[in-house]
Structure formats: C-alpha cells, structure tokens
C-alpha cells in the first residue's frame, strides 16, 4: 500500500512536468490557452504560475471524468469500472496501470485545437501523453483499455486498434487483450477524447527508482524513529516491504524477458501468489 501511494505521488509530479512541457514548447496558445490556469503571457514572454497543482488537479479531474463517463452518460459500448480490474489485471500483484489522456489539457482549456481521430489514438500510445515518465510503446503490454468519448463508432475503434497493433508488444498469451468503451457524450469544448489505461511493464523503472531512493535512506536509518514509535510498527515491516518490492520488480523482469523470445507462458500461479 505504501509503495502504491508513493508511485501515485510520483505520477502527480510527472504531470506537473508534463504541464511545463506543454507551456514551454511550441507557439504560445497553440497547446494551452493564454489565459488558462497554466500560463499567462506578457507580449511574447511565457510565464508559469507559481501554483502548478491547480492545473495538475484539473488534469486528474479530467481523467476521472473520462473514467466515470460510462456511469454518467449513455453510450453504445459502456464500460463498468469493475470490468477494468477484471480485464486489465491478469495477476493480482501486477495491478499498476499506466494512464494516458488525449487531448492532454486542463478543464479550463476548452479551446484546445481538435485532434484528428486517428491522431488521437496515436497520441494515446506516445510517451508524451503518458501521465508518468514511461514509454509503454517500447515495453510489454499485458492488457489495454480504451475509453472513448464523443461521436466515435465501433468501426473507428477496431480500425485504429488494427492499425496500432503491429507497433505494440503484447504478451503471447493475451494478444487480443483489448477492452473498449464508448460514451456518446464528449467532454465540454471537445468533439472527442480518449483515455487509455495500460497494464504495461514500463512501470518497472519507476519501482526500481523507488527502491533505490528508499534504500539510500534506509541504510542511514533516516526517519525510522518517526515510524517505530507507532504501536504495531516494527523495523521488520520495512524489510518485508523491500522484499515485496524486489519480488514485484523481478516479476516484471520475467515478463520483459519474454518480449523478444519464444512465446513461453509465465508461471501464472507463481506470479499470482
């Protein structure tokens, strides 16, 4: 639970970096509105506001609105939230999903130029639209869900999945591991949007970095006294957490090892322990 929280916190700061990248690249106003929460302009000078968490929270809210759209609006292919965990998590331990959102904007940016439908699907699998620092397109997919809002047909979904499949690496035992949802009501100010949720081994470097940062503090016994005075909290809890995190990384390593090799099914029961 602790590692999952830190992993989510890290993704929040990655969103801040993504916002700054949007602000500082391209012509002013081409990606983010000049009078939005993220940017302001004085002649040709771009200035980032001092409170980026407002924009970050907006992006998170935008993600949640897309995630829950099927429960709030009608659609030809609505997806229940329970279906996400049922279809995207083949092993209980490997339940960390990578999310991407297109268009990537805050709720205030209602005038962001519309993306072509096919380009929107391509953007969802590019590293620039991921909400953590990861590149799932060059890692191994266990499963993937696409939640689309707007006037999009099932045929559009299937066509783009078939177009993108050759460039994506799926595990041998789940080559058709796609889950799709269609909501007919688009976000305010947009003709359509796409939220992609991927169970992908690209999260492994994040856990490796987390372990490295933790071990540097743990070797110095830094801050341990803040936790050990709590009833029920013992130093062995930290050792167990390190062991659990190491096992998780090793499971991702085993899956990555099958990427370019023969299609050997992993030991499902072993991973599910």
Automatic annotation (TrEMBL):
Residue stretches making up the Tubulin/FtsZ 2-layer sandwich domain: 77-212
Keyword terms of this UniProt record: Cytoplasm, GTP-binding, Microtubule, Nucleotide-binding
Subcellular location: Cytoplasm
GO biological process: microtubule-based process
GO molecular function, one term: GTP binding
Keyword Metal-binding: no
GO CC annotation terms, alphabetical: cytoplasm; microtubule
Pfam family, one: Tubulin_C
Family: Belongs to the tubulin family.
Oligomer status and interactors: Dimer of alpha and beta chains. A typical microtubule is a hollow water-filled tube with an outer diameter of 25 nm and an inner diameter of 15 nM. Alpha-beta heterodimers associate head-to-tail to form protofilaments running lengthwise along the microtubule wall with the beta-tubulin subunit facing the microtubule plus end conferring a structural polarity. Microtubules usually have 13 protofilaments but different protofilament numbers can be found in some organisms and specialized cells.
Protein name as catalogued: Tubulin epsilon 1
